[in-house]
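Q: what sequence does this backbone want?
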């Protein structure tokens, strides 16, 4: 049984995931298909949104880069990293360095072990 808080959290998470997908689709529609192409635009966009257009400067070749001397440098760096990870479908903790099993991989492996009836029941339960 779900309480009202869980229902609200479900809606928030679903909205976040949809927006994450929308972000990826929109970037690809602009021809920004790789992290290398996306990152300079993400740096500028994050700084525009969170630091009033400050927090980055340009290298000699004109490429945007975060300003390590800016007061919000660590915050902006984290937000750029989080956005880039979202574009790759990853999270901050999805790296393999922790030595932990990725929970999504574990769930997918468990799902693959289910028979057809169990898979249908599972899909019905999560719909």
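A:
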């Amino acid at each position: 049984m779900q309480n009202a808080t869980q229902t609200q959290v479900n809606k928030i998470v679903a909205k976040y995931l949809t927006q994450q997908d929308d972000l990826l689709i929109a970037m690809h529609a602009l021809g920004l298909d790789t992290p290398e192409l996306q990152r300079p635009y993400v740096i500028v966009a994050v700084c525009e949104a969170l630091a009033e257009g400050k927090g980055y400067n340009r290298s000699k070749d004109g490429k945007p880069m975060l300003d390590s001397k800016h007061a919000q440098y660590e915050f902006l760096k984290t937000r750029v990293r989080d956005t880039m990870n979202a574009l790759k479908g990853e999270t901050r903790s999805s790296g393999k360095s922790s030595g932990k099993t990725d929970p999504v991989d574990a769930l997918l492996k468990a799902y693959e072990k289910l028979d057809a009836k169990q898979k249908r029941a599972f899909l019905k339960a999560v719909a």
